[in-house]
Design goal:
The protein is an alpha/beta fold and 146 residues long. It contains 6 helices and 7 strands; from the N terminus they run ββααβαβαβαβαβ. The strands form 2 sheets. A 5-stranded parallel β-sheet has the order 4-3-2-5-6, sandwiched between helices.
């Protein structure tokens, strides 16, 4: 089984659908001290909101519907994102649902910690593993032949 290390500091992607941006912003503000020790990435408007409201440096990709989710997915596949916090809205259909599904599939495939709600994000950010290297197993396997 292939393994790779999650470094310290972590490279954390932050994404929120419109109906969840306030939740994510509140979570980031509450954890600002901890997050300031890591590298932050976000889709367009989420990243702009976090940077404006907290002063934290955030590398911004395109807006999710314009390809930002796919950009973050590519960075996960390239080993450049270690952690995904994605507050998605389960009650609101999204025009880019296939991109969202692909992003979540890559997060599982590359075995990165992923939170889709505040409770999970709280547990992950409080883990002692946030501040040390962690060896993760990759879920990569050759495709089955038909």
């Amino acid at each position: 089984m292939e393994t790779t290390d999650l470094p310290t500091p972590k490279r954390i992607a932050l994404i929120a659908h419109d109906g969840r941006k306030d939740d994510l912003l509140e979570w980031v503000k509450y954890n600002q001290g901890t997050l300031s020790h890591h590298f932050l990435y976000a889709t367009g408007s989420t990243g702009a909101l976090i940077a404006k409201e907290t002063g934290l440096p955030v590398h911004r990709f395109l807006s999710g519907p314009l390809g930002g989710d796919q950009q973050i997915g590519a960075k996960i596949a390239e080993g450049e994102i270690d952690f995904l916090i994605f507050f998605w809205d389960p009650l609101e259909p999204q025009p880019h649902d296939p991109d969202i599904k692909a992003l979540l599939r890559l997060a599982v495939l590359y075995n990165i910690p992923t939170a889709s709600n505040r409770a999970t994000a709280d547990f992950l950010i409080a883990s002692p593993l946030m501040n040390q290297p962690y060896q993760r197993h990759l879920n990569l396997r050759p495709p089955r032949s038909a």
